[in-house]
Amino acid sequence: MKRILFICLGNICRSPMAEAIMRKLVKEKGVAEEYEIDSAGLIGYHEGEGSDPRMKSHAYRRGYLLNHISRPIRETDFDEFDHIICMDDSNWERLHRLAPTLEAAEKIERMTDYCRSHVIDHVPDPYYGGAQGFENVIDILEDACQGLLESLE
Fold this sequence. Notes:
By secondary structure, the chain is of the alpha/beta class.
Protein backbone atom coordinates (compact mmCIF):
# COMPACT_ATOMS: atom_id res chain seq x y z
CA MET A 1 0.00 0.00 0.00
CA LYS A 2 1.32 3.41 -0.99
CA ARG A 3 0.12 6.17 1.33
CA ILE A 4 0.09 9.79 0.15
CA LEU A 5 -0.93 12.88 2.10
CA PHE A 6 -1.23 16.20 0.27
CA ILE A 7 -0.74 19.36 2.34
CA CYS A 8 -1.60 23.04 1.87
CA LEU A 9 -2.36 25.81 4.31
CA GLY A 10 -6.09 25.44 4.95
CA ASN A 11 -6.98 22.19 3.16
CA ILE A 12 -9.77 23.78 1.13
CA CYS A 13 -8.18 24.47 -2.28
CA ARG A 14 -4.88 22.96 -3.38
CA SER A 15 -4.50 19.81 -1.28
CA PRO A 16 -8.07 18.51 -1.72
CA MET A 17 -7.72 19.18 -5.45
CA ALA A 18 -4.48 17.16 -5.55
CA GLU A 19 -6.23 14.40 -3.60
CA ALA A 20 -9.13 14.30 -6.10
CA ILE A 21 -6.81 14.28 -9.12
CA MET A 22 -4.66 11.50 -7.68
CA ARG A 23 -7.71 9.41 -6.77
CA LYS A 24 -9.01 9.74 -10.33
CA LEU A 25 -5.63 8.81 -11.84
CA VAL A 26 -5.18 5.65 -9.76
CA LYS A 27 -8.78 4.63 -10.43
CA GLU A 28 -8.33 5.09 -14.19
CA LYS A 29 -5.13 3.07 -14.05
CA GLY A 30 -6.88 0.29 -12.11
CA VAL A 31 -4.59 0.50 -9.08
CA ALA A 32 -6.82 2.37 -6.60
CA GLU A 33 -6.66 -0.50 -4.11
CA GLU A 34 -2.88 -0.04 -3.91
CA TYR A 35 -3.18 3.53 -2.64
CA GLU A 36 -4.36 5.43 0.40
CA ILE A 37 -4.75 9.11 -0.52
CA ASP A 38 -5.76 11.95 1.79
CA SER A 39 -5.15 15.65 2.33
CA ALA A 40 -4.78 17.97 5.30
CA GLY A 41 -3.95 21.55 6.18
CA LEU A 42 -1.36 23.22 8.32
CA ILE A 43 -3.99 25.27 10.12
CA GLY A 44 -7.28 24.13 11.59
CA TYR A 45 -9.18 27.30 10.70
CA HIS A 46 -11.34 25.49 8.11
CA GLU A 47 -11.60 22.20 10.01
CA GLY A 48 -14.88 20.44 9.24
CA GLU A 49 -15.60 22.56 6.15
CA GLY A 50 -15.81 21.37 2.58
CA SER A 51 -13.57 22.65 -0.18
CA ASP A 52 -13.71 26.25 -1.34
CA PRO A 53 -16.85 26.59 -3.53
CA ARG A 54 -14.83 28.22 -6.32
CA MET A 55 -12.41 25.29 -6.41
CA LYS A 56 -15.32 22.86 -6.33
CA SER A 57 -16.88 24.60 -9.32
CA HIS A 58 -13.70 24.60 -11.39
CA ALA A 59 -12.98 21.00 -10.40
CA TYR A 60 -16.46 19.86 -11.38
CA ARG A 61 -16.12 21.43 -14.84
CA ARG A 62 -12.93 19.41 -15.28
CA GLY A 63 -14.47 16.12 -14.16
CA TYR A 64 -13.47 16.03 -10.49
CA LEU A 65 -15.67 15.75 -7.43
CA LEU A 66 -14.31 17.47 -4.33
CA ASN A 67 -16.01 15.91 -1.33
CA HIS A 68 -13.14 16.15 1.15
CA ILE A 69 -13.77 17.70 4.58
CA SER A 70 -10.92 19.89 5.80
CA ARG A 71 -8.77 18.69 8.65
CA PRO A 72 -5.46 19.80 10.12
CA ILE A 73 -2.39 17.62 9.93
CA ARG A 74 -1.85 15.36 12.95
CA GLU A 75 1.42 14.08 14.35
CA THR A 76 0.23 10.54 13.59
CA ASP A 77 0.11 11.44 9.88
CA PHE A 78 3.91 11.36 9.86
CA ASP A 79 3.73 7.67 10.85
CA GLU A 80 0.75 6.71 8.70
CA PHE A 81 1.84 8.18 5.35
CA ASP A 82 4.83 7.36 3.14
CA HIS A 83 4.73 10.63 1.17
CA ILE A 84 3.74 13.99 2.64
CA ILE A 85 3.53 16.31 -0.32
CA CYS A 86 3.28 20.06 0.15
CA MET A 87 2.34 22.87 -2.19
CA ASP A 88 4.89 25.61 -1.43
CA ASP A 89 8.00 26.55 0.54
CA SER A 90 6.01 27.95 3.45
CA ASN A 91 4.27 24.57 3.78
CA TRP A 92 7.65 22.84 3.47
CA GLU A 93 9.17 24.85 6.31
CA ARG A 94 6.18 24.45 8.63
CA LEU A 95 6.01 20.71 8.00
CA HIS A 96 9.68 20.35 8.86
CA ARG A 97 9.08 22.16 12.15
CA LEU A 98 6.16 19.82 12.88
CA ALA A 99 7.93 16.59 11.93
CA PRO A 100 8.51 14.61 15.12
CA THR A 101 11.64 12.83 13.85
CA LEU A 102 14.26 13.09 11.13
CA GLU A 103 12.74 10.00 9.51
CA ALA A 104 9.36 11.76 9.42
CA ALA A 105 10.92 14.89 7.88
CA GLU A 106 12.40 12.78 5.09
CA LYS A 107 8.85 11.97 3.92
CA ILE A 108 8.14 15.63 3.11
CA GLU A 109 8.23 16.42 -0.60
CA ARG A 110 7.31 19.32 -2.87
CA MET A 111 4.41 18.81 -5.26
CA THR A 112 6.15 20.65 -8.08
CA ASP A 113 9.12 18.26 -7.95
CA TYR A 114 6.84 15.89 -9.86
CA CYS A 115 5.83 18.31 -12.62
CA ARG A 116 6.68 17.05 -16.09
CA SER A 117 5.68 19.99 -18.27
CA HIS A 118 5.34 22.94 -15.86
CA VAL A 119 8.55 24.65 -14.82
CA ILE A 120 7.48 26.06 -11.48
CA ASP A 121 8.73 25.91 -7.91
CA HIS A 122 5.39 26.02 -6.06
CA VAL A 123 1.66 25.58 -6.48
CA PRO A 124 0.25 29.09 -5.99
CA ASP A 125 -2.59 29.60 -3.53
CA PRO A 126 -5.66 30.63 -5.58
CA TYR A 127 -7.71 31.68 -2.54
CA TYR A 128 -7.36 35.45 -3.01
CA GLY A 129 -7.30 35.43 -6.80
CA GLY A 130 -9.75 35.05 -9.62
CA ALA A 131 -11.00 32.19 -11.77
CA GLN A 132 -7.77 31.84 -13.76
CA GLY A 133 -5.87 31.12 -10.54
CA PHE A 134 -8.02 28.06 -9.84
CA GLU A 135 -7.63 26.82 -13.42
CA ASN A 136 -3.86 27.31 -13.21
CA VAL A 137 -3.69 25.32 -9.98
CA ILE A 138 -5.63 22.44 -11.52
CA ASP A 139 -3.31 22.44 -14.55
CA ILE A 140 -0.23 22.30 -12.32
CA LEU A 141 -1.69 19.60 -10.07
CA GLU A 142 -2.76 17.42 -13.01
CA ASP A 143 0.80 17.57 -14.33
CA ALA A 144 2.41 16.90 -10.94
CA CYS A 145 0.01 14.09 -9.96
CA GLN A 146 0.69 12.32 -13.25
CA GLY A 147 4.41 12.65 -12.61
CA LEU A 148 3.97 11.40 -9.04
CA LEU A 149 2.02 8.36 -10.19
CA GLU A 150 4.66 7.56 -12.81
CA SER A 151 7.39 7.78 -10.17
CA LEU A 152 5.50 5.42 -7.84
CA GLU A 153 4.67 2.84 -10.48
